[in-house]
Amino acid sequence: SLSAAFREYLGHLGLQDFPCGLGSWNKSCLNGHRSPRGVQPGQEEAVLDEETPEVLLELLRDQHSPWALPPDCSPQDRLLKEVAVLAPELFHSSKVYQVLKSLRMVDKGVEEVDEGVLRFQQLEELILSANQISRVTSANLPRTLKVLELCCNTVGDLQDLCSQPPPELQHLGLGHNRLCGPSQDRFLTQDFWPNLISLDLSFNNLTDLLGLVSQLCSLQKLRILVLQGNPLALIPTYRGFLVDSLPKLCILDDIYVGSDERQQFQGLASQPELSRSEARVVVSVGEMKGVPGPSALQLLDLGSEAPVITCSYFVTYEF
């Protein structure tokens, strides 16, 4: 589950070890409400060998320090480490769930977005790329979410995600999943995503361009759309039809939609018959290596008793 993966992730960060966490190295009056280990409230004596928060932070930031964070660490790693120095009591009381506004759990083997995710009461951004998630229950998502990224998972059905979707969501990333049209098109409307600005549906198995556009037209705030990698993108009038059908779109497939392009494709939306539901792919094989050429057979005389060996070859293409 996502909650279990997050707890394991916190364990790997070592947030309870020097210079992070609570310990004898903490300054007595840090934050004005915490005493070091072994000192009772009301005692004024200074404790030896304590470090100031500035010194502890320097141990994390100085590249020559043995506790320095690696240069390729994520901003999330750095933030949690520094919070564990400045306010280590948060991790003892589990208040860290109430502090995080962004959570990035990429390639952690997550299969389920469980109910424990609701503990992140201020979460606005949830990045879950490259996991093994096939379904997302929207009831387990914080209502504060504005960004939900599910790229490179195995999501094939949006029904559970759309039962109680986060009302303020602005970006939904579903690229490189297993969505098949047209059964999923009905979940991509204003009724479910009233504040959606950016939508990534790239590299799925969406095939019905007309049906999908009829649903996307209801997304009044949609400005960024990615559909490349779907079979429907093979239709010759694909881009022009989308540009003319979605007049508020600013970026399509990572390419800016300019006024010249809008004028060029003006009127295509009123001619759906031009956007055929089928596409023809012509494959030409220019050269094959390791295969005996037909010229070798021509060297045999008509009366030759040499055995003739016939070989067959085939090439397969997967779409």
Q: Key terms for this structure?
A:
Leucine-rich repeat, LRR (right-handed beta-alpha superhelix), 2 domains, 8-stranded mixed sheet, 8 helices, about 325 residues, alpha/beta
Architecture overview:
With 319 residues, the protein is α/β, with parallel strands linked by helices. The protein has two domains: 1-23 and 50-99, no CATH class; 100-271, Ribonuclease Inhibitor (Leucine-rich repeat, LRR (right-handed beta-alpha superhelix), Alpha-Beta Horseshoe). It contains eight helices and eight strands. It has helices at residues 2-13, 53-61, 75-86, 89-92, 96-99, 209-216, 238-245, 259-264, and strands spanning 102-104, 125-127, 147-149, 171-173, 198-200, 224-226, 251-252, 255-256. It has an eight-stranded mixed sheet with strand order 1-2-3-4-5-6-7-8, with helices on one face. Helix 6 links the parallel strand 5 and strand 6 (224-226). Helix 2 (53-61) runs antiparallel to helix 3. It is extended, with a radius of gyration of 29 Å.
Mean model confidence by pLDDT:
83
Low-confidence stretches: 32-47
Q: For this entry, what is the oligomeric state of its chains?
A: single chain
Distance between the termini: 32 Å
What is the element string, with H for helices and E for strands? HHHHHEEEEEHEHEEH
CATH topology of the largest domain: Leucine-rich repeat, LRR (right-handed beta-alpha superhelix)
> What is the highest CATH level, the class of the largest domain?
Alpha Beta
Query: What structural class do you assign from the helix and strand content?
Result: alpha/beta
So what's the overall shape? extended
The strands making up the biggest β-sheet line up spatially as 1-2-3-4-5-6-7-8
Quick one: biggest sheet? 8 strands, mixed
- Fraction of helical residues: 10-25%
| Structural domain count | 2
Protein name: LRC43 protein
Organism: Formicarius rufipectus
Keywords: Leucine-rich repeat, Repeat
InterPro entries: Leu-rich_rpt (IPR001611), LRR_dom_sf (IPR032675)
